[in-house]
Amino acid sequence: MQIDRLSLEHIYPELRRLARRQRRQAGRPTAFETTELIHEAWMRLGEGADWADRSHYLATAARAMRFVLIDAARTRARLKRMGGLQRVSMPESRLLSAPVLDDRLIALDDLLSRLDERDPRLAAVVECRFFAGYSVEETAQALGVNDRTVRRDWVKAKAWLTRELIA
Question: Minimal CA–CA distance to 2: which of 52, 39, 37?
Answer without folding.
Answer: 52
